[in-house]
Design goal:
Distance between the termini of chain A: 13 Å
Pfam families (chain B): KPWE_dom
Largest interface: A-B, 87 and 60 residues
Order of helices and strands of chain B: HHHH
Family (chain A): Belongs to the WD repeat peroxin-7 family.
Structural class of chain B: mainly alpha
Number of strands of chain A: 28
Strand order of the largest sheet of chain A: 1-28-27-26
Protein name (chain B): Peroxisomal membrane protein PEX14-like KPWE domain-containing protein
Strand content of chain B: under 5%
Radius of gyration of chain A: 18 Å
Structural class of chain A: mainly beta
Helix content of chain B: 25-40%
Shape of chain B: elongated
Helix content of chain A: under 10%
Largest sheet of chain A: 4 strands, antiparallel
InterPro entries (chain B): KPWE_PEX14_dom, PEX39
Oligomer: heterodimer
Protein name (chain A): Peroxisomal targeting signal 2 receptor
Number of helices of chain B: 4
Chain lengths: 323, 96
């Protein structure tokens, strides 16, 4: 284990905006979207920030305001201009980065905060899944004005909904009811319920190189790996965070590498196949760190955003050497 | 913590730097039903415009490339189906 600063992080200050989610564009290297909220998301409006990496640092390309806080963002997989956000007022918004004004569309069906949105990752599907504090998951075709389907079953707020990168129509959800659930969009029902933690689960993600492997991050400060072929116990547990884990993501490039950010202000990098799995702890924020993404273009590049009103892009030391 | 019903340890509020003090003050104002400083009330509505046409082809994901090229990454198992994935295994082990 090493405690190191991400070398020469490029930083954008966004005064009065508290970052909730950061997502790299799947099309344009160095373009980043950040969903942010005024007043820590407690009250006030939200802002979608589109940020470009330039030689001298980070430059704000465009920003879009919304009436309520924005908690998550996802890029379209079939149009480089398009994104979807989830908001505190229960709506989803469709945005176009090539236009100064927006949103193009608003989809209001959830009755409470929309905390997660994700655009499908498998080819041949262009669907968005949303998770809400109203305890439902909804499936959307952004070209259609209303949801295609509503999934019920979670017994508390939903914090995270993520499509499988391998199995068409399959997504995972994580909830305050302490379960991770695997759904089949075509069957409109839950397929697997995993009591993954004895605490609220704030985040989950799929391994990009093993279709059966997921990770969960929870308020109990632990990350746990789950093999869908046998969910009686986790296949790994990663300990080190000192407060709730807000978001976890698998590496797009390495099968056993993942990153997590936390209410302990840190971002940590892990390789669960190693006896000493904690690769690096990055301590460059001074508040809750809620947004995190790993670049799809560069194997070493990471972005995060925090309630300290900054967005950062950096290359942590542990990713610049073979994991 | 973010909103009245939200996860995250309350202890961090007291521990943290000045920004958290602001958060604590903010929560106090909300609880007292008082007006928040600099609150922006907006009335934004959908433009109902059409998205700008895409000009770029979809890029393959890094893991899609791994299935084609020779690489150190483990390849995804063949014919992914959820039902197959649900079959219980004798021993669940982490991939290396």
């Amino acid at each position: 284990m090493s405690t190191a600063r991400g070398g020469a992080a490029r930083t954008l200050r966004v005064p009065g905006r508290h970052g909730y989610a950061a997502e790299f564009s799947p099309y344009l290297p160095g373009r980043l979207a950040c969903a942010a909220s005024q007043h820590y998301g407690i009250a006030g409006g939200g802002t979608l920030l589109i940020v470009d990496q330039i030689e001298s640092g980070l430059r704000l390309f465009r920003s879009f305001d919304w009436n309520d806080g924005l908690f998550d963002v996802t890029w379209s997989e079939n149009n480089e201009h398009v994104l979807v956000t989830g908001s505190g007022d229960g709506s989803l918004q469709l945005w176009d980065t090539a236009k100064a004004a927006g949103p193009l569309q608003v989809y209001k069906e959830h009755t409470q905060e929309v905390y997660s949105v994700d655009w499908s990752q498998t080819r041949g599907e262009q669907l968005v899944v949303s998770g809400s504090w109203d305890q439902t998951v909804k499936l959307w075709d952004p070209t259609v004005g209303k949801s295609l389907c509503t999934f019920r079953g979670h017994e508390s707020v939903i914090y995270s909904t993520i499509w499988s990168p391998h199995i068409p129509g399959c997504f995972a959800s994580a909830s305050g009811d302490q379960t991770l659930r695997i759904w089949d969009a075509k069957a409109t029902g839950v397929r697997i319920v995993i009591p993954a933690h004895q605490a609220e689960i704030l985040s989950c993600d799929w391994c990009k190189y093993n279709e059966n492997l997921l990770v969960t991050g929870a308020v109990d400060c632990s990350l746990r790996g789950w093999d869908l072929r046998n969910v009686r116990q986790p296949v790994f547990e990663l300990l080190g965070h000192t407060y709730a884990i807000r978001r976890v993501k698998f590496s797009p490039f390495h099968a056993s590498v993942l990153a997590s950010c936390s209410y302990d202000f840190t971002v940590r990098f892990w390789n669960f196949s190693k006896p000493d799995p904690l690769l690096e702890t990055v301590e460059h924020h001074t508040e809750f760190t809620c947004g995190l993404d790993l670049s799809l273009q560069s194997p070493t590049q990471v972005a995060d955003c925090s309630w300290d009103e900054t967005i950062k892009i950096y290359d942590p030391a542990c990713l610049t050497v073979p994991a | 913590m973010e909103r009245p019903r939200s996860p995250g340890p309350a202890a961090t509020l007291a521990d943290a730097a000045p920004a958290s003090a602001t958060l604590a003050q903010l929560l106090q104002l909300v609880q007292q039903g008082r007006e928040l400083p600099g609150l922006e009330k907006r009335h934004i509505a959908a433009t109902h415009g059409e998205p700008t046409a895409s000009r770029l082809p979809r890029r393959p994901k890094p893991w899609e490339g791994a299935a084609l090229a020779e690489s150190p990454h483990p390849r995804p198992q063949a014919s992914p189906t959820l039902s197959k994935g649900m079959a219980p295994a004798e021993a669940a082990t982490a991939p290396s």
